[in-house]
Design a protein that fits this description.
Layout (H helix, E strand, L loop, with lengths): L16 H11 L5 E4 L5 H10 L5 E4 L4
Parallel strand pairs: 1-2
């Protein structure tokens, strides 16, 4: 606002895309492979994510 600069953009997906994606996951048509590590094993989690990444694969460090 100070220099009268404006940034304009558009959403990447239509408004209903999020609910549609959640619906696919709930119905079992879209599945993710999730590998979970606790915070004490963060180095192993990073190594796993680097070596076993890809579409629909997640390495997760949930909070305690």
């Amino acid at each position: 606002m100070r220099n009268c600069i404006s940034i304009h953009g558009v959403w990447m997906y239509p408004p209903g895309a999020t609910t549609g994606l959640v619906g696919l996951i709930r119905s079992g048509l879209l599945q993710f492979e999730v590998t979970t590590f606790d915070l004490d094993h963060v180095n192993e989690a990073v190594a796993h994510a680097a070596s076993d990444g890809g579409p629909f694969k997640m390495t997760v460090l949930p909070p305690s």
